[in-house]
Each structure stands twice: as C-alpha cells, then as structure tokens.
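Fold this: Nucleotide-diphospho-sugar transferase domain-containing protein
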Amino acid sequence: MVAKSRAFKSDIYVFMDTETILLPDFVLALNYAHNLDDDWLLFASPRDVPNFPFYLDEDRKHWLKDGQRIRIQELQDTLGSSWQWSCCDSRMVIAWNNGVMPLHHGVLPPFLYGKGVYNHWLINEALSSGLRFVFDASWTISNIALGDSRRQSNRLVKSSNVSDIEKGSWEYDCNSHLAAVYGLSSLHGFNYSAVMKLVKCDGQYLLINATEDFLHTYAYKKKSLWKRHIPNCWRSKTTLACVVRTIKTWNETSGCSLKDGSVHTKTLKLSFSLESLLAITADENKTVVLTVAGYSYKDMLMSWVCRLRRLRITNFLVSSLDYETYQFSVMQGLPVFNDPSAPSNISFNDCHFGTECFQRVTKVKSRLVLKILKLGYNVLLSDVDVYWFKNPLPLLSSFGPATLAAQSDEYNQTRPINLPRRLNSGFYFARSDAPTISAMGKVVRHAATSDLTEQPSFYDTLCGERGSTRKGDNRCVEPGTNLTVHFLDRNLFPNGAYLGLWERKNVKSACKKQGCLVLHNNWISGRVKKLERQVISGLWDYDITTRMCLV
C-alpha cells in the first residue's frame, strides 16, 4: 500500500483507517506541515469516543444531531468532554510529503494489514533513520475512533485492556517477527517521549519537546528546530499554560510499551491445516491452483504468485517442501502449508530435472493432488516455472467430468502431441470425481515403485506403456477407470521447446500474438539458467530486493 502510493503525483500522502473520522483541523495541520522547509512525516493517535451521536445529511456535507445541523466547533466541543486517548491503537493517521528523502532506510516488510505493529514500526524506522522530520500531531488532529469492541483485537502494543484474542494471534506474531527481522525494532523499543509534538495555542501552531522544555513557532526552518528555545514573545501565561496542559496530557498517556519482544525468536507456524486452507481459498466451483516449491525456488515462486495476483487469481495454495520455504511464505502472506511427507534435504541449488532430488520432489505433487481430490476439490497443478499470460481456468473447466487435461511435452510440430511419455506433469487440471481419483491413485502407486520421476508414471499408467491406449493425436483413455486424458493445444499451452518461443527476441510479444495462455519454462537444464532465461525475457513479476510484486 505504501509502495503503490508513489504512483500518485500528490504533494501529500495519508495513511489512515477507514473506520475513523477526521475533522477539518486535519486539513489545517496538513497545511502547516506543507509549509515546512524539510521532508516530514507526522502521525496522530486516535481518540476513542464511546458515544458518537452525530451523522451526516443526505448530501454528506453537514453533521446532524437529532435531525438538526450543528457546527463543527460545537461537534468538537461536545467530543472534547468525552473522548479518551488511545495512543496504543492501530487506528493512527500517518501523513508525509512527497519529498526527496525516503521515509526510512531499508525495506518495508510485507506486514499483514490490520494485524498490528506496522504503524509503530514505520514511525520508529523514520525516527531512527533520521531522513525526515518526524512529529506527533495528536493534539492538533481530531482522529476520532468510534467505540467498537470488535476492533480491540487490532491493538498494537500492551495496555491494560488487550484482549485475549490478540495474545494468541498468529497474525500479530507474524507482524512482530517481521518488525524484528527488518529494521531497528529489535534493538530498542518505541519511545515517543522525545518526539516533537505539534500543538495549537492562542491560534498559533507550536512544536514543543516535552522532555527538553523548548518550543518553536510556526516558521519552522530547516535544521534550526533543535537550536531555538522558547522566544520571549511566546512566554505568555496562556501559551505556557497550553504547553503545560499538553505535556501533562502526554505524560498521562505515554504508558504504551511493545509486547513481548521475544516473539521474533519463536517458530512461526500458521494455524491453518490443508483442509482449512482449501475451504478459505477455493473458488465457487471448489477449484484450487496448487504449486509446490523448495527454498532454492522461492524467488520464482514469488514471481508466479505475483503474476497470479496481477491476473486477480486468488484461489491458489503453496505446498512448501522445506521449513525455510514455509517461513518465507508465511512472512510473504501466502496461503502455505507444510507437507509432512515431503522428502528431506531437497533445498539445495541442484534440485533440477534429471537429479535424484528432482525425482523425489515430483512424486510429492501427485500425492498432494490425490489428497486434495479426495477432499472434494478440483486441482490445477502448476509448477512455479509456468508463466501465466491469462487465466486458463475457464477453458480448463470446460472439459467435462472424467477428463484430465494436461500439457504436452512434445516439441516437434509435425508429430502427434500424445506420443509416449509426452505428458507433462508440471501443468494439468484434474476434477474431483471417481474416475479421476481412481486413476490418480494408480499413478501415485506406480510412481512409488519407480526409480524415475512421476512424469513417466503419469503416461505409462494413463496412456499405457508405449501409448497403447492412445486415441487419435491428442487423447488417451485409461481402460480401468475410463478416464480420458486430453493433451492441451500447444499453441495455447506451449512447452519450453515448442516453436523456439524462449529464443524469440520478444518472448512476451510472440506469445501474446500466438494467443498463449501459459508458457512453461522447461526443456532447460539447471535452476540458474532457467531463472536467467525468465528474468531476461521480461516474464518476471517480482522485485527480489524489495520483496514486492513489480507494478
């Protein structure tokens, strides 16, 4: 969200909760900040209001109470006697100018939105980096947070009323872990006592430091803030009384502290099983897209995920082959589960086609697909090296029951696409019906006794050895279950050697012109070569340095 804000040509960016109310003093405070001579970041803690008897008229321009229009000043005066500070709450307002300097050093981690920590992390990193002038505008911005017990689980830091739900939240633990891994949060806690505070006394804005007893007038000058003490013209009784009240209020409400800092040392583990993830992610047709990945392919996994997200495909699942991939996926917010039956020692860089490691890994995929089919879900299995140009599910779903649609690995343009062992088990669609489940069970049992990958087991089981049950040029039938295997049109689902697409000067343009739905990055040996070919071709959607999807 923060990264995407940079795409807008605005003078000021504001990050806020949608369920808070901002009053006109917010705009006045922004006008003041806009006139500062330095790059800045301000924040304002919310004010909890248990009873908010006001509502907007039909034109949403004026506030009403008991059907009568009221002035903003009257509204603010009414709220002034009932609100309570909530400095530990997640519903902060954060704003910054579109300046030269970044908000902070380093990378903004992929925090889960609404699950705590990130607002305080961002402020802390901005303060620690020293790239911008950071100040607290809680006294000048009416950030009204309506009383709602359902929001309590989103509080960020320890206070006397933290709910029991939050204490056991894996989402909070995940964000806490990210806060510790990225940035300086693990070195020191969030301490806002020394942060400059913006107040408004006698109609004038003042920047005060509650710990060093000095203030500055409206005319902020770059780098001069830290040198001026209270000027004589501001030593009036009313001004000083206003400042004293502000400092007193701050001292009474600054008792927030970070939750247990040891969270980041714990093992992060999602509370979701495969079954619960299926229920959450499957689409309306009970279909999921499944991929399997080890740590050496984590970047390609993320590029694959980013591409699906770009296509607005959300019904995907990730099966991690090792704990490192699981942890990485959790911190990227992916729907991931750890397969306990996955072979060990498979995360090294040489786990590619032709190796013993590759043979063991491929057999994990068919076992998982069978398990998901038995749970009542259709599965589109896609390796992470399959680039998606468009969503292929509408076409794949058009194949009827008792049909398995799979990519062909045949590259010769003049030969049938269903020749022996030309079924690619890295991209296929299987329905959760009796014939498919029975046939997939045969594939899994055959692969368990084979010294090869699962791919020959697919063909030999479903199409017969040497293609004895082939039907025409693009099908075969498994006789025991009467399952039809349909080999997909290579112009729509080309493999890595078909038509030399990967060798084209502009791979993306060539594929789009041909009408490709996907393009498999196979028929190449070695992880590094595979990765280089995909990145160089432009079929890459992930920024490794920022760990974000490319815009």
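Residues 149-167, 217-230, 257-263 have pLDDT under 50 and may be disordered. The radius of gyration is 30 Å.
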